[in-house]
Design goal:
about 120 residues; rod-shaped; about 0% strand; mainly alpha
Amino acid sequence: MTPTDEGSMHREIGMLTAKVDIILEGVRRSEEKADASRASMHRRMDEIVDRVSKMELTTATVQDDVKEMKPVTDAVKMWRQRGIGALAIVGIAASAITFIVTKFGATAIAWVTSR
């Protein structure tokens, strides 16, 4: 080997070493980006888990509240139906009294005043 060949070979090895270093640096950066991306994804997943657990707790609380309100709502509906029925009976009674007074009122007044 001549000194020129040996220098050329050292230069080639140096260039190959530099290229390998560049490739390794690229791989390292890629791994750092992937690590950061995974960390971000895990952080978002943790946030979603927290939100879902809060929603479950809120839903359970709302269900308990609805269970407590249902008997009251049913009772109010029953009172309303009874009230409507009572109004119907009062209306029918008022109509009957009006009919009786209209039909027999003059006769009843005449009979009462004639005695």
